[in-house]
Amino acid sequence: MDTNSEFWAVYAAGGADTEDACRLYDGLEAASLSELIGTWKGREFPTGHPLDGVLSGLNWYGKAFHDAENVDPLLFELPDGEIAAMDPVPLMDKRKLLKATGGKARMRMMEHRGVLSAVMVYDNLPIHDHFRKVNEHVLLGMMDWKGDANPFFFILEKVE
């Protein structure tokens, strides 16, 4: 079974444990910065991480990559249907969501798990989101939060 098919089969089965998610991630191709530009719809990739269900419970929409210096790392769908960028610091501090002004992250190329690939670096949090390509329109993200023993996984699908 090819990596793309295996990925979707694991996702359809309800996700994976962290070890299997890491193995899937490691088998995917690196993503470039230019491939990230645009708006992406997100969904969680369950692994049993404590954050599983948190973002979806808050109506997480995804991420928007404008350029290397300006990324909206957390887009949420508001009750009126508006898609809005939110400041990640209050969310991670378990406070209420606050609308963000300007990008709250940037993109760089970084080696992680032995592969040079695109990464989103939060401006004010010790978090890096590393990306690998499932295919041209789908990314698997691995959130590396300093001090967290296990990564949090998520899927991004390009909004056309």
UniProtKB/TrEMBL annotation:
<dbReference type="InterPro" id="IPR025568">
    <property type="entry name" value="DUF4334"/>
</dbReference>
<dbReference type="Pfam" id="PF14232">
    <property type="entry name" value="DUF4334"/>
</dbReference>
<feature type="domain" description="GXWXG">
    <location>
        <begin position="24"/>
        <end position="81"/>
    </location>
</feature>
<feature type="domain" description="DUF4334">
    <location>
        <begin position="103"/>
        <end position="158"/>
    </location>
</feature>
<dbReference type="Pfam" id="PF14231">
    <property type="entry name" value="GXWXG"/>
</dbReference>
<dbReference type="InterPro" id="IPR025951">
    <property type="entry name" value="GXWXG_dom"/>
</dbReference>
<protein>
    <recommendedName>
        <fullName>GXWXG protein</fullName>
    </recommendedName>
</protein>
